[in-house]
Amino acid sequence: MKKKMHFLAFAQHGVINHAIAMWAHPRDKVGYDYARPEFWQDLGRLLERGRFDAIFLADELAPYNVYKGDVDISIRYAAQCPVHDPATLVPVIALATKHLGIGITLSTTFEHPYTLCRRLSTLDHLTDGRVGWNIVTSYSSSEFQAMGVTDVIPREERYARLEEFMEVSYQLWDSWAPDAIVADAETALYADPSKVKKVAHEGRYFRCHGPSFVRHSPQGRPVLWQAGSSAQGRDFAARHAEAVFNIQPTAETMRAYTDDIRRRAHAHGRDPESVRIFFGLQIVLGETRESAEEKLAAFKAKIPLDGALAKLSGDIGFDFSKLDLDADIGDIEVPGIRGQFDAIMAANGGKPVTVRQAAEIYGMSLGAPVLVGTASDVADQMETLFEAGGHDGYMIMATYMPGCFQEFVEDVVPLLQARGLYRTDYTGRTLREHLSER
Ligand SMILES: Cc1cc2nc3c(=O)[nH]c(=O)nc-3n(C[C@H](O)[C@H](O)[C@H](O)COP(=O)(O)O)c2cc1C
Q: Whose CA is nearest to atom 1 of ligand 1?
């Protein structure tokens, strides 16, 4: 029996996903408005037909304003702007699907664990156990400014606060025992209070007293995801995450990341395989290799460099307008996503990267590998990377939507199924069960 791949679909509740200017492609969202439920419901059905573990919704709480010190370029080129609330999509997608997991990004920085856990547990009920939480701490200055917090909390402290956030969250999720609900109509006894633990937390960052307001949910707690890439981020993932998502441009860097996460998980006393590792992958399909290459070239020609640099500057936390387009990036400080900076450097095979090259790489795929060719070429490349990288699956990154997922589901998925590399049906019900399938 071959180890099987798992797939997630990388999306954002916005006009584009991650490839800049894709909204302007003639095949993007034909007949759809991303702000309406139909788009998400049809996408959910499509992904479920492709037996994806989940749709994964990235999020930011405010438009990036690092590039040229302003939001205007982000707005002009829809560089991750506008972005609507991801949590609201969960019931919308759940109502149109039966198996597909729905992972949402929620930041811990401006919320109390009590409200955030309540929302996630409610969503776990509404989806009958299909919700996942991508745990982020917010790193972008614009998010802090939008919330009226003047100083971005430094990485060290963000992770210290997050650790305590998790401590409170586990207690809240364990508050109601699974058998606390008695529902005896004769005596009108609904729930047994002795089976509802009251949280009593007095910590450095949080105070929380009282039971959770939500009864035990189908999964008990959402599936915990993480995408941190600094040493602190990886350690956090190794302690808490059931799945991690990362961008690594080559088989070698994938293997190094996988080995590192598994080693850290082992050091924390966990089964290293219990952390599911996903890498981003963008796929450009054609009937022939030539037509696929032409398609990619046309995508790239559409990317406005300024738009890509607005996204890159926001993700990294460095204003790239300060450098000449043909200057090497060199060694800059990275208050934002450390791993994304490393991914760009590695994407050019370790050779120096100019600002222009970085924008081109980033504007297309955020530094993730772009697999180009016929469906069978792509299946071959996926298999080769899968054997070399030691990971569990891929986060498929969109080009035009939903067409790119439709092509993938119709053309590549059957090939992987025929090779015994991918499930032909779901065997579980909850998101946790999908992920744990081998
Ligand atoms: C591929 C990838 C995707 C991410 N997506 C999000 C996101 O949607 N929202 C967010 O606030 N942070 C996102 N992050 C940021 C991380 O989860 C993390 O908060 C950030 O990288 C800072 O932590 P680090 O220093 O450990 O990398 C992403 C990171 C990576 C590598």
A: 246
List, for residues 342-391, the tens digit of each pLDDT value: 888 888 887 899 999 999 999 999 999 999 999 999 999 999 999 999 99
Q: Where are the domains of the chain?
A: 6-436
Assess whether the C-beta atom of 253 lies below 6 angstroms from ligand 1.
Answer: no
Closest CA to 193 of 169, 218, 210, 173: 210
Query: How far is the centre of ligand 1, averaged over its atoms, from the C-alpha of 376 (Å)?
Result: 32
- Cβ(396) – ligand 1 distance below 6 Å: no
Give 396's strand partners: 9, 281
On whether the 6-436 domain is CATH 3.40.50.1100, my answer is no
- 75 contacts 63 by C-beta, under 8 angstroms: yes
Query: CA–CA separation, 420 vs 325, rounded Å?
Result: 46
Return the best residue to mutate from 147, 159, 247, 337 for the ligand 1 pocket (most ligand atoms within 8 A of CB): 337
Nearest CA, atom 6, ligand 1:
58
Distance CA(129)–CA(147), nearest Å, equals 31
Tell whether ligand 1 has an atom less than 6 A from the beta carbon of residue 108: no
Q: Characterize 69-104 residue by residue with b for buried, 16 or more Cβ atoms within 10 angstroms of its Cβ, and e for exposed.
A: eebebbeebbbbbebeebbebbebbbebbebbbbbb
- Cα separation of 179 and 269, whole Å? 29
pTM: 0.96
